[in-house]
Design goal:
Layout lengths: L21 E9 L5 H17 L5 E10 L9 E9 L5 H7 L6 H9 L1 E14 L7 E5 L7 H12 L5 E8 L6 E5 L11 E5 L1 E4 L3 H4 L3
Antiparallel strand pairs: 1-3, 1-4, 2-3, 2-9, 4-6, 5-7, 5-8, 6-7
Length: about 210
């Protein structure tokens, strides 16, 4: 089943809807000696300088705090950063940009406060990626279900909650294969056994100037 949400993207548009878009998702958690407020401020500063001087193909990023994900800090307090890029060709420039020029100092400060991290690469398949989702539902494809059946089951649940559906493209860590991001939980069938999280936003491009949490 092909994604039916193929629309042009203009720079500055807060929504992302084209299937070619990828997300490098990075989970990290603070060192026990790092204060939560200091850690989050350092993360915001890195996101701010990256947004102010983006790499080629970078669309935007958002970050939120989570708890209870077995693949991140053994289910303890952690953070989840989403870096959206136009295609796979944008991944190398993003990797280089994070640790060079005016972004290096902010990156190094944030990294020095972290205990560890893990990551994976996801592809946008359905729906619209909001700039600041408040709900994440992670799960695996039920045994015996085809991907076309999966997309048909997920697609109608997205529009009511402003959701997007992401499928893992490359495994870099132990996170689940599938994710629905939305402003509130989507109504998914019981067959999709999942980890569901309420997200506390750390960065969405607007939070740094307001200090909002």
């Amino acid at each position: 089943m092909e994604d039916t949400f193929h629309v042009p993207i203009v720079r500055g548009d807060p929504s992302v809807t084209r299937e070619s878009f990828l997300a490098y998702v990075f989970w990290h958690w603070r060192h026990p000696s790092a204060d939560r407020s200091t850690y989050e401020t350092a993360q915001q500063e890195f996101q701010r300088v990256l947004s102010a001087s983006p790499s080629a193909g970078f669309v935007r990023s958002f970050s939120h705090a989570i708890a209870g994900a077995p693949w991140a800090n053994q289910g303890g307090e952690a953070y989840e950063d989403w870096y959206l890029v136009r295609d796979s060709a944008a991944l190398d420039p993003l990797d280089i940009a994070a640790v060079t020029a005016g972004r290096k100092a902010a990156h190094d400060t944030a990294a020095s406060l972290a205990a560890a991290g893990t990551a994976a690469l996801y592809q946008l398949k359905l729906g619209t990626a909001l700039p600041s989702p408040r709900s994440a539902q992670w799960f695996v494809k039920p045994a015996g279900m085809s991907y076309s059946q999966l997309y048909a089951a997920i697609e109608p649940t997205l529009a009511p909650v402003g959701g997007s559906f992401w499928v893992r493209k490359m495994t870099l860590g132990p996170s689940p294969e599938l994710c629905v991001l939305a402003r509130e939980p989507a109504t998914l069938a019981p067959q999709f056994q999942m980890f569901a999280f309420q997200l506390r936003p750390i960065w969405d491009g607007s939070l740094a100037s307001t200090g909002a949490r």
